[in-house]
Amino acid sequence: MKLAVWDPDEPFRRWRDALAQHAGELRLAVEVFDAVEQPDEQADFALVWKPPAEWLAGQQELRAVFNLGAGVDALLPLMRAHAPQVPLIRLEDAGMGRQMADYVAEAVLHAYRRMDDYAALQAHGTWEPLVLAHRTGFGVGFLGLGHMGLAAARRVQAMEFPVLACTRSGTPRAATAAGTAFDGPVYGIDRLYEFLAHCRVLVVLLPLTADTHGLLDYGALSQLPRGAYVINAGRGAALREQDLLDLLDQQHLGGATLDVFETEPLPPDHPLWSHPRVRITPHVAAQTLVGPAAAQIMRKIAALERGDAPGGIVDARLGY
Ligand code: GLV
To answer: Which atom of ligand 1 sits closest to the CA of residue 288?
Structure first.
């Protein structure tokens, strides 16, 4: 079978070697080619990160497309337009959960230990111990409890903060092979405002869909308690940046750590860059790891070959 890789961000040989190794372990005969270099070559399976629409439209033999990341918001519209019958499959954790948990844990502790306040005091050479909130009242809320949300929530739970979550369906997440159950209240999205009112820290790990676009606007963000902290490491467009800035300037919100933005790269003159209560990283919270991703994709291809449905098939109707 022929596997096309379209990933301009990664040297092709890394994908080729990792895929060949895992195919060998599964006794699958594969031929892997670089679609960026050979755009006219036809593939049975495509592994892609932001491929051009023309390339996808020119692929006539695809049995499945694998998204080389967690979020499919960029790829789904192309699939709808050019390959509507072909299943789109996303990575499920594949080493990204631990990175996301690290990122969120750091930001939660940054907020809890009032590091922005100490930075402001340091700037004036002021030695002033500040009051530390009781941990039991410092609820950390996860908006979105997919693979990334669950990994981060488990870590924060292990750090002994109270956790809560809000998801589309409001159903609790059970224990999985990868870890323990989520042990906290889970609100349905219809109770978003009630959920937000309980979050000292809000962690946004939503997929970007028609339902989540602009969900965190002024009305929603102002439900957060005074001084609350916002972490967004899902998709930028779920949160209205100007509304966040307004609420920071009105001192309703205490600060934010942001990895994702409405426009990426964040434009050089954007006011978020210089805001004293905002920390910015350039969409690096959880990056695709070639080894674990290749292993997972080959296992999913093996499942397809057996006629089984692998995990991670995107529901085009829901958008994730
Ligand atoms: C990164 O944002 C991803 O979707 O994997």
So the answer is: 5
Closest protein CA for atom 2 of ligand 1: 71
Whether residue 293 sits in one domain with residue 177: no
Q: How far apart are CA 142 and CA 230, in angstroms?
A: 10
Cα 70 to Cα 48: distance, rounded to the nearest angstrom = 12
Determine whether the shortest distance from the Cβ of 71 to ligand 1 is under 6 A: yes
Domain count, the chain: 2
End-to-end Cα spacing for the chain: 27
The one catalytic residue in 90, 114, 173, 235 is 235
* Neighbour-count burial of 289, counting CB atoms closer than 10 A to its CB (0-12 exposed, 13-18 middle, 19+ buried): middle
pLDDT digits (tens, 9 = 90+) for 242-254: 999 999 999 999 9
Model pTM? 0.96
Structural domain boundaries, residue 267: 97-280
- pLDDT (tens digit, 9 = 90+) per residue, 81-109? 999 999 999 999 999 999 999 999 999 99
Mutate-to-test residue for ligand 1 from 288, 290, 296, highest number of ligand atoms within 8 A of CB: 288
* 318 inside domain: no
